[in-house]
Structure formats: C-alpha cells, structure tokens
Amino acid sequence: MKLKVLHIITRLELGGAQKNALAILTNLPQDKYEAYLLTSSGLLEDEARAIPGLRLKLLPFLRRRPNPILDILAFFSMAYYIRINKIDIVHTHSSKAGILGRLAAKTVGVKAIFHTIHGWGFHDLRRSFFNDLYIFLERLTAKITVKLIAVTESDIQKGLDNRIGVEKQYCLIRCGIDRDRFKAIGQQDILNVKNSLGLKEEKVVGMVACLKPQKNPLDFIRCARLIVNDDPQVKFLLVGDGVLRPQVEREIQKNGLTEDVFLLGWRRDMGAIMSIIDVLVLTSLWEGAPLVFLEAMCFSKPIVAYDICGAGELVKDNVNGFLVCPRDTEGLAQKVNLLLANREICDRMKKFASVVISRKDLSLDFMMERIEKLYSSSFANVG
C-alpha cells in the first residue's frame, strides 16, 4: 500500500523552501507514495500543478503574517484535510506552516510528523516578544515531531541552544539541486536575455531575492552605488519582487542608478540569468541555506554575501567567495570590485565553486535518498 505524504508550506513563492518542497514532491517514487501539498497560491502554482500525481490544495487562510482569525481557520482546514485524506506522513516547511501544520497533524492522530527548518523564525532583528513566542511554539511542536530536518548545521546548533527538541531528533539534509537540469540552457536563451537588457560586454552583478526585510535589498542598491563610483560600466540585476519594491525604486532614483540597475521581477529563466552574471551578491540578514548559492555555483559564479547563519557552510571565505559583516555595504562593494578587477582571483573562485557544488550532499539524488530513508524508517517505527 502506498504511503500518503502531505507537505505543508505557507506560500508558493519563488523561494528556496518552496523549491525544496516541490523538488521532494516531484521526485518521490509514485509506486511508493501518494503526494499531497497544502499551501496558498503563488508564482510556483503552475509548477506544482505540473507535478505528476500531486494532489494540490490551496488554503486562502494560510498567510505569512500572524492573524489569529485566519490562523485558526487555517488550522482547522489543515486538520480536516489531513483527516479526510487519511494522510500517513506530514512534512512541514518553515515556521508558520510548520507550527500550524504539525499541531493539526497531531490533533487528528498522525504520528509520522517531520519538519524542515529553512532558518528559524526567531532572530536578533525581531522584537523580543515575538522571538519568545516563536521559541515557545517551536519547543511545543518539537515535542510532537519525529524528526527535525535542518538544511544547515548552524540551525541545528541554534535549535539546541534554544532548547528546541533534543539532539537525536535533528538530522542534517542539505537542499539538493539537479545540476545538469538547471544548467540545461541554450546559447540562444542566454543571447535573448542579454539582448532584452541591452547588455553587451559589461560586467554584471546580480542578486536573486524576494524584496522583503529579510533579504534587505536596499543594501544591494547602496552597494551598487559604491561599485558604480569605482567602475561606471558595471550593471546590476535584481531578480525578485515584494513589499519593498517601492522603496527599492526610490533608492535607485535617489542614487542616480536608473540606467545601471535592472529590476527584473520574478523570472523563470534563472539558468540564463545566472549564466550572464559575473558575481552573485546576497544581502540577507538571516537565512537557512540559500538555494541561490547552489544555483550560482552550478555556473561557477563567485559569491559575495553577508556572513549570517549557514552562509559559511556553502561559501568559504576567500575560497569560492567572500563573506562580510552584515550591513557592511562598503566591505561588500570592496569585495565585488576586487573580483571584477582581478581575473586571477575570480578564476580561482570559479574553480572552487565548481568543486563545492560537486559535493555529494548537495545533489538532488542524495537529498531524496535521505528523505526516503527517513520516511520509510520513521513511519515503520511509529506505524
């Protein structure tokens, strides 16, 4: 008999957590599992609907921001859906969906409950009341979770430091990427992107992120201003959208960068985008393990980012990129300028980027092997 596996995530936006969940659902063997997904709508909805055999249910009540009424409605909707579909395994992602989804699963008697931590919901930039609330809720839901799946070692340590779960509950399964599939783009696709942006031989610095406070996109614009002061020929691509877009647009105008920064919104041709950039930048203030790092390394691109959370587990400072202190836009700009101006350093980092991305634990096959083993063994133990 097939096991019914339900994944729950808050929104189907173009983020690493969403891509991770869809990758798992896409690659679960259909002869062993029936795949279900509970979420709210977003740009990846079409991708979700295209997964063979996937039962997709959209919950309009499921929102990222806390809302007592909508959260209660989402909780009861989840519990009802799990019960009527006789779900065997519930696997949640990120904080909001993770808390509501695990409580709903426990309420209706599901025993095989898993949660993937894509960075914790509490951090130094959140008010202490909300941090305390998230920590309390994570401790509570950890008690009903079979395994806490972390994508970084730092998240395991942070969880243990905050007395969330116990050590034996944690396992490290890094996000995996299908390198060959992601790199499978044609030269014409690359040429089309360059032509659409009017790019010829200019150096290009890119950032891929949702335009929200966590990703801190205003620092990317400030960094761009400093880089342009040193080299006016550099162009900048900011891929993504979100609540901070109006502020980003104002910052671009304020710094006189309207001819230098391209706001591309969400794109589905990320392989072509990655192929034309010279350096990837990420200004996030907190993260799990950014999938965009893996995507950049597939194309041997050096990375410059803030040294936060698990960034150092993928970007080795002065090896395949540079890490600088958060909010240090001057340091960020200096490292980007160094890469753009020094071909020898850049080539060395490209070489090591290829070495890092070739690691077995960053492959899609290895991730799926670990996930399947976890499902089968844990379900057998609790079933």
Outline the structure in words.
With 383 residues, the protein is α/β, with parallel strands linked by helices. It folds into 2 domains: 3-176 and 363-382, Rossmann fold; 179-359, 3-Layer(aba) Sandwich (Rossmann fold), CATH 3.40.50.2000. Helix 3 packs across helix 4 (95-107), helix 9 runs parallel beside helix 10 and helix 9 crosses helix 13. The protein is globular. The protein has helices at residues 16-27, 45-49, 68-84, 95-107, 128-142, 153-161, 179-183, 187-197, 217-230, 245-254, 270-276, 291-298, 329-341, 343-357, 364-382, and strands at 3-11, 33-40, 55-58, 89-93, 112-117, 147-150, 170-172, 204-208, 235-239, 261-265, 279-282, 303-306, 321-324. Helix content is 45%, strand content 17%. The mean pLDDT is 93. The strands form 2 sheets. Strands 3-2-1-4-5-6-7 form a 7-stranded parallel sheet, with helices on both faces. A 6-stranded parallel sheet has the order 10-9-8-11-12-13, with helices on both faces. It contains 15 helices and 13 strands.
Subunit organisation of the chains: single chain
Distance between the termini: 13 Å
Number of domains: 2
The top-level CATH class of the largest domain is Alpha Beta
- Taken in chain order, the helices and strands follow as EHEHEHEHEHEHEHHEHEHEHEHEEHHH
* Strand runs, count: 13
- The CATH homologous superfamily of the largest domain corresponds to Glycogen Phosphorylase B
Approximate helicity band: 40-55%
Strand order of the largest sheet: 3-2-1-4-5-6-7
Runs in which pLDDT lies below 50 for 5 or more consecutive residues are none
Q: Assign the CATH topology of the largest domain.
A: Rossmann fold
Assign the CATH architecture of the largest domain: 3-Layer(aba) Sandwich
